[in-house]
Design a protein that fits this description.
It is a single chain. By secondary structure, the chain is an alpha+beta fold. The strands form 4 sheets. The protein has a 5-stranded mixed sheet, with helices on one face. Strands 2-5-10-11 form a 4-stranded antiparallel sheet. A 4-stranded antiparallel sheet has the order 13-14-12-15. The protein has 2 domains: 177 residues, Ribosomal Protein S5, domain 2 (2-Layer Sandwich); 155 residues, Alpha-Beta Plaits. Bound molecules: (3R)-3-hydroxy-3-methyl-5-(phosphonooxy)pentanoic acid (PMV). (3R)-3-hydroxy-3-methyl-5-(phosphonooxy)pentanoic acid binds next to helix 2 and helix 4. This is Diphosphomevalonate decarboxylase. It comes from Scylla paramamosain. GO terms for molecular function: diphosphomevalonate decarboxylase activity.
Length: 347
């Protein structure tokens, strides 16, 4: 029997992936850019075991036995086994690719609440399967077939997922573009506005957007393409204020196209908007103080929870402001999903 345990952190997109050109292969309509958080905070942990004596594949998620029928899990498993079957192994390990697998996966933060749980989960699953079946090389295109955004959690730091051009998805891969400490001393504050499962999952939300939003056509053909280039430039030049402005603009555009769908996909709540508004006031103050390098930025995935990037020098102050403006209910733990430093890939 061979057993491997891996962890993979979530990644937070600063230029969002929203909309697919191929549903089955999970090929996006646009490039996206993200930050992979540190391993110590929000991450998935997966243990996989393979053995010639196992009689079937089995899967547990957060302690509950789950069906392995899920086509996305199957796609990842099939692709890893296909790649493993092409490798040469010594002696008794020769048919390792045909051994059944037992998978046990857990997240240390709410699942399916718009906190990128599937990104960490599939990156971790694919990385662990790759290790246990002895598959080498780029795994981002396999993780992508589990959940698009998962391909970015294969790498640490700032990562770009290239949409690619090929019909088979072979060039739709994630590549690291800058190390975790590129913007030094950066803190991430996650405001859990609601830890419940989102009403409209990202797959349905994206489909609805592509089918019905005319604003989406503008996003894809004009705005997101130029924003990607501006973001690459801001990252290259370590231009933090521009990085902040672009991050905020892209989050708002993603939620605007969601509202432009029919029926609308509403992910942000009044509290989410109040958090955004507070941070705009904070940034206005920093501009008046001529301290634009202490600006902060927010971004929202397909859910109401805010992810805030803040320079360390102001992170405590921003956190204190948030806790004052939005005091957590007494019964709720406050220390669960508060901070992390963008840093590492799946290990
Ligand atoms: O990978 P999915 O299907 O969970 O979609 C993720 C979509 C967003 O989180 C909203 C944006 C992104 O780029 O991560």
């Amino acid at each position: 029997m061979k057993t491997v345990t891996c962890t993979a952190p979530v990644n937070i997109a600063v230029i969002k992936y929203w909309g697919k050109r191929d549903e089955k292969l999970i090929l996006p309509l646009n490039d996206s850019i993200s930050f992979t958080l540190s391993q110590d905070e929000m991450c998935a942990k997966t243990t996989v075991s393979i053995s010639p004596t196992f009689t079937e594949d089995k899967f547990w998620l957060n302690g509950k036995k789950e069906s392995l029928e899920n086509p996305r899990v199957q796609n990842c498993l099939k692709e890893i086994r296909r790649r493993a079957s092409k490798r040469k192994f010594e002696g008794s390990d020769e048919n390792v690719w045909s051994w059944h697998v037992h998978i046990c996966s857990e997240n240390n933060f709410p699942t399916a609440a718009g906190l990128a749980s599937s990104a960490a989960g599939y990156a971790c699953l694919v990385y662990a399967l790759g290790q246990v079946y002895g598959v080498e090389g780029d795994l981002s295109s396999v993780a992508r077939q589990g959940s698009g955004s998962a391909c970015r959690s294969i790498h640490g730091g700032l990562v770009r997922w290239y949409k690619g051009e090929a019909d088979d998805g072979s060039d739709s891969v994630a590549r690291p573009i800058a190390p975790p400490d590129h913007f030094p001393n950066l803190r991430v504050i996650i405001c859990v506005v609601n830890a419940g499962q989102k009403k409209t999952g990202s797959t349905v939300g994206m489909k609805q957007t592509v089918a019905t939003s005319s604003l989406m056509q503008h996003r894809i053909s004009v705005s997101v393409t130029s924003r990607i280039e501006s973001m690459m430039k801001a990252i290259k030049e370590k231009d933090w204020p521009t990085f902040c402005d672009l991050t905020i603009a892209d989050s708002n555009e993603m939620h605007a196209v969601c509202l432009d769908t029919f029926p609308p996909c509403v992910y942000m709540t009044d509290t989410s908007h109040a958090v955004a508004s507070l941070l705009h006031k904070y940034n206005d103050l920093k501009t008046i103080e001529s301290n634009i390098n202490h600006k902060v930025c927010y971004t929202f995935d397909a859910g109401p929870n805010a992810c805030i990037f803040a320079p360390e020098a102001v992170a405590e102050e921003v956190l204190a402001l948030l806790l004052q403006a939005f005091p957590p209910p007494p019964a709720q733990a406050t220390d669960d999903y508060v901070k992390g430093i963008p840093s590492q890939p799946a290990t």
